[in-house]
Amino acid sequence: MRVRCPHCRKVSFIGQEYPMKRCVYFTLMAIFFAVVAGGLIGATVEEARDYNAIYALWTFLLVLCVGCVCWAVYWVRIKVSTPLQS
Q1: Which branch of life, at top level (predicted)?
Q2: Residue pair 5/12 in contact by the 8 Å Cβ criterion
Q3: Per-domain residue ranges of the chain
Q4: Distances from the Cα of 27 to the Cαs of 10, 23, 36, 60, 62, in angstroms?
Q5: What stretch of H or E contains 50?
């Protein structure tokens, strides 16, 4: 659950479960896009010399991969709060 501190207005999460699920999800997506990009690059190296649009597809897949890695790092580094019991 996402909460905002009433004093400093910073956002944090209560509980470790949700941020870790998101981190695993984005890590798996990054691995998937990396495998797809690697397979596509390996399979179309020769054709890329004739068809320049293939470079755009390579770039798109690599940007998706890097974006997923960045989001995974974000979710692993996000602040997790522990509520105080009264």
Answers
A1: Eukaryota
A2: yes
A3: 13-80
A4: 25, 6, 14, 18, 14
A5: none
As beta bridge partners, residue 12 has 3
Two structure tokens written together for 50: 């004739």
Contact between 54 and 47 (Cβ < 8 Å): yes
Exposed/middle/buried for residue 30 (C-beta within 10 Å: 0-12, 13-18, 19+): buried
Q: Which two tokens stand for residue 16?
A: 């470790």
Give the predicted TM-score (pTM) of the model. 0.80
Q: Which letter, b or e, does each residue of 38-64 get, where b requires 16 or more Cβ atoms within 10 Å of its Cβ?
A: eeebeeeeeeeeeeeebeeebeebeeb
E strands, the chain, are 2-4, 11-14, 80-81
